[in-house]
Design a protein that fits this description.
By secondary structure, the chain is mainly α. It contains 10 helices and no strands. The N and C termini lie far apart (about 65 Å).
Length: about 210
């Protein structure tokens, strides 16, 4: 008979495999088209903050590497996307964007040199739910403002929805960590909404021009 832990490990491997390629279609699409319209720099910046805190939290709690390896992989992919946004963005970054990058670097250096304690990381993790909401609202508002998701790939977001569902199960059934459960439950709902909006506005400006004709 398969034990609950084994089920969790199997699901963890499936999310890991999915996350290995989650943002690859998005990265390749940007490189190929050199188009980043509708992709929110601030949304990805905030998400990087969130993912970094999550990885540090799992490490601080001494959870198994398998339980957060997919998050670490997503973090690396988000780094690549932010760099591409900086390269191909039509408008130069403002003070807010540079402030996000600078603040992130300071926070990471603080952790590396030991200024931030384990207790502080656990405390900050409580605010990740709010950080995730801000990140997702930034994505949603950006899509609704442009009504153009031609540069966004839905495959990665669908993988995120699945990953969130798995994390809710693992967080509740195996880790008994309600912080993780609430975070990924809310995150999953927003990712589902973003996936819907990506499909809805996939035609972007071309559809609007056809309607006008």
């Amino acid at each position: 008979m398969i034990e609950l832990q084994q089920v969790g490990d199997i699901l963890g491997v499936t999310t890991l495999v999915g996350c290995l390629v989650a943002q690859v279609p998005q990265i390749l699409a940007i490189i190929k088209s050199k188009n980043v319209d509708g992709i929110s720099f601030n949304g990805f910046s905030i998400e990087i903050f969130s993912l970094t805190i999550q990885v540090l939290y799992f490490v601080a709690q001494e959870y198994s590497i398998l339980s957060y390896s997919d998050i670490a992989i997503l973090l690396i992919q988000d780094y690549v996307i932010v760099i591409l946004l900086m390269i191909y963005g039509k408008e130069p970054l403002g003070l807010r964007e540079y402030g996000n990058v600078f603040g992130y670097l300071i926070a990471v250096v603080s952790v590396v040199i030991g200024t931030v304690s384990k207790d502080m990381i656990v405390m900050v993790m409580q605010g990740v739910v709010l950080l995730n909401i801000v990140s997702k609202l930034t994505f949603v508002s950006s899509i609704l403002a442009t009504k153009d998701t031609s540069a966004m790939e839905p495959a990665g977001w669908m993988i995120f929805v699945y990953s969130n569902a798995v994390r809710v199960f693992v967080g509740y059934a195996l880790l008994g960590d309600l912080t993780i459960v609430s975070q990924h439950a809310i995150n999953g709902l927003f990712n589902l909404a973003i996936t819907f909006l990506i499909f809805k506005y996939k035609g972007g400006k071309q559809e609007e021009e056809k309607k006008k004709e």
